[in-house]
Amino acid sequence: MVRLIDMVFPGDANHHGTLFGGVGLAHLDKVAFLAASRHARRSVVTAGCERIDFVAPARIGEMVEAVGRVVRAGRSSIDVEVELHAEALLTGERRLCTRGLFNIVALRDDGDDARLAAPGEDDPADDGWLRTTEMVFPGTTNHYGTLFGGDALKLLGKAAFVTATRQARKVMVMAATDRIDFRAPIDGGDMVELVSRVKNVGRSSLSVEVELWAERLLTGERRRSATAEFVMVAVDDAGRPRALDGH
């Protein structure tokens, strides 16, 4: 299973203040691509998708979560079922926005007749870490062809924000970054997985640790590329720190 989490900002919304349909479709296709690539460990392309109906909107300021899982694998094709949910961060209210079935084709080298593996069962274990994926495209790479450090920081900060807000269900702002270490470069075409969890809880602040892992989609080789720790503070309408529940 592959999960992508993003926020609905004004630049991704239409004139109604809801997520633009094209952005939602892009999230679905990206998750389907990542799930199929992880399963096949081959270059894959989207061949088509079944009818997609948008049953509920995602509004500015909400989080959207796209989850994709492989449901069928043939000789060269893979079906990936994808769902897109919206979540109100302050209440936790969730609703299904849309779902779709994407048909992905694995490209083969001459003489490669190996059949794709059948889909397995998802691991239901919850170890307390939030996992979300992204893809490194050329627009986010530097002149060396690796992920630009500023874009890596953006991903780390977004993971910390989502993790802290889901924990507190309060308006959270970034107060500090205790430490950020870049350990290995991330190449264009890699998938990145952000793994985050709340480390410490104070009166009005949370400490969130985030790891950024890079994964080569054709081989599955993974490396921990960055680690960071963020201090996130709950604030009231005036921007002043407010106590978290239980304090």
Query: What is the domain tally?
Result: 2
Average pLDDT confidence is: 92
Query: Whole-Å distance between the termini?
Result: 36 Å
What is the name of the CATH architecture of the largest domain?
Answer: Roll
What is the fourth-level CATH superfamily of the largest domain? Hotdog Thioesterase
And the CATH topology of the largest domain? Thiol Ester Dehydrase, Chain A
Per the principal axes of the C-alpha atoms, what is the gross shape?
A: globular
Q: Rg to the nearest angstrom? A: 19 Å
Helix content: 10-25%
CATH class of the largest domain: Alpha Beta
For the report, how would you describe the main beta sheet? 6 strands, antiparallel
Percent range for β-strand residues: 35-45%
Parts with pLDDT < 50 across at least 5 consecutive residues: none
Q: Which H/E pattern describes the elements?
A: EHEEEEEEHEEEE
- Structural class designation: alpha+beta
Secondary structure: number of strands: 11
Tally of contiguous helical segments: 2
Task: Note down, in words, how this protein is organized.
The protein is an alpha+beta fold. It has 2 domains: 2-106, Thiol Ester Dehydrase, Chain A (Roll), CATH 3.10.129.10; 130-234, Hotdog Thioesterase (Thiol Ester Dehydrase, Chain A). It has 2 helices and 11 strands. The strands form 2 sheets. Strands 1, 2, 3, 4, 5 and 6 form a 6-stranded antiparallel β-sheet that branches. The chain has a 5-stranded antiparallel β-sheet with strand order 7-9-10-11-8. A hairpin with a 3-residue loop joins strand 4 (63-73) and strand 5. The longest helix is centred in the N-terminal third of the chain and has 20 residues, at 21-40. The protein is globular and about 65 Å long. The two termini are 36 Å apart.
